[in-house]
Amino acid sequence: MANHQDLNQSLLNGAHVLCSQEEWLWDGFDNNRLIFFADGTGEMISRAEVIVKIVAGIQWKLLPSAKRVPKPPRETTVVPPAHWREIWFQRMTEDLKEPTTVFAGIMELTITKRRPLLYGTVVHNQINEEVLLDGAFETRRIDIVIETGEFGLACHYGPLRNGSIGPIYGFRLTFSTTPYPPMEMWKPEEHNVAEMLKHPHMKQFCARKLADEARSSTCSIM
Predict the structure, then answer these.
(1) Number of folded domains that form the chain
(2) Is residue 217 part of a domain?
(3) Residue pLDDT, tens place only, 195-213
(4) 74 in a domain, yes or no?
(5) Residue 14: phi, psi to the nearest 5?
(6) Domain for residue 108, yes or no?
(7) Which of 128, 129, 182, 187 has the greatest count of CB atoms below 10 A from its CB?
(8) Which residues of 152-190 are buried (b: 16+ CB within 10 A; e: fewer)?
């Protein structure tokens, strides 16, 4: 079992990786992203082109887990579609390496009603508390794993993959359940939009681009 010093170092390592990245992306067009700041605050954004529903400040904290946090299942490791393998093999001289875990534990996450700017602009859409129920702003604890390796965006390689090969990233953040509010925390009249946004699938986010895409990096969820 890890001693107190090892646990503290693990927490510091995890927080450093989260905060040292400009943003954590689910898709390649900044529609759905997370930002973490060193003071324990951050931002959560969710939109689909002109439809903007969440532009919220967050509060977060890493905690050690009393149980062993399982690694993400192997099928989430980047394995490119067959017709793109030759592109990958031109870039790499050996098989994809197993990811290295930087941190495995718990994130204590609270979505707030604070509205940060979106690309320097005030958002006038109906967002946050105007589309979510009060329960969406309660603190949750979610198992997370932070890894280093070579990863594609979830929208290109996950269950909603669009068939294109996107950028390659050096870090991956996996949640045991989506950090976005679950369907039952949306106001009834917003359920159709919430289903369109596909938040339940958004459990993995990438950061630190290593290589540009071979094709378009955009990923439509419309």
Answers:
(1) 1
(2) no
(3) 888 888 899 999 999 876 5
(4) no
(5) -60, -45
(6) yes
(7) 128
(8) bbbbbbbebbbebbbbbbbbbbbbeebbbbeeebbeeeb
